[in-house]
Amino acid sequence: MIASLGMYDMPHLRDAHDRLWAGIRTALGYGPDHLTRDGDPWTEWQASDLLLAQTCGLPYRARLRDQVTLVGTPDYDLPDCPSGYYFSYLIRRRDDPRSLRELSKRGVMAYNEPLSQSGWAAPVTHLAARGLRPKRIKQTGSHLVSIQSVLLKTADYAAIDAVTMLLWGAEDMDAVAYLEAFDTTEPTPALPYITALDRDPAPIADAVRTAIAAMSHEDRCDLRLKGLVDIPASAYLDLPIPPAP
Asked: What are the backbone dihedrals phi and psi of residue 136, each rounded to the nearest 5 degrees, phi first?
């Protein structure tokens, strides 16, 4: 049986995620003793013995929609954002005054992967709405590497999941000082919790809610978790699938 909370499982947050999972397991009454880490996400998401995992909205609507069951969407209490939704920060270096239009024409946009709502679909949609598109792109493999690419000047701008940006920024405030979040994308449903297709999601959702409510104040602040929201599958599926890079 697989349980994984890997989407925001940064090193400084692993203990808090372990405690969150322990609370979910206790409330549910069964489940693996430990979270699965360092496995292949696609293998975990599609496993028949998946109990709980977190995926991204774009993989869900592009490939997983008929293979998994939605459990619920965590609410990360983001500023100026509906409950259970999130957005991307468009970042650049503070010493780079170029506008989004100038960056799109002459800069390099770092993105984590083609099947990322926050790193690829959101910025491409944001640019297209303004008659723009990224002229040069660089795939990095993760949001944190995209941030490093901008810091190290191997890329000029990137769209970073707001939750990732805030969780990372709380740990590395010195690096944040060199970056500027100069724009935001439109909010879309946040990264949902999922379970295997034939598993009843209701008791899992109840256990997640119970565990979040029982979290310590410190863990709640560290993970930014406020609660669990019921967002219908249609809210994910109605979003367009962007063209591949």
From this structure: -130, 135
From the number of C-beta atoms within 10 Å of its C-beta (0-12, 13-18, 19+), residue 177 rates as: exposed
How far, in Å, CA of 26 to CA of 204, rounded? Answer: 11
Report the predicted TM-score, pTM, of the whole model to 2 decimal places.
0.95
Give burial (CB, 10 Å; 0-12/13-18/19+) of 53: buried
Expressed in percent and rounded to 5, the helix, strand and coil fractions of the chain are 40, 20, 40
pLDDT in tens, 169-201: 999 988 899 999 999 999 999 999 999 999 999
Distance (Å, whole) CA 172 – CA 211: 28
- Flag whether pLDDT at 225 surpasses 90: yes
What's the CATH code, domain 2-76+189-237?
A: 3.40.190
Q: In the numeric block, which tokens belong to residue 229?
A: 């929201």
* Crossing angle for the helix pair 162-171 and 143-151, to the nearest 10 degrees: 60
Alpha helices in 76-197 (DSSP H): 100-106, 122-128, 143-151, 162-171, 173-176
Tell me which CATH code domain 88-186 carries: 3.40.190.10
Q: What is the mean pLDDT of residues 53-58?
A: 97
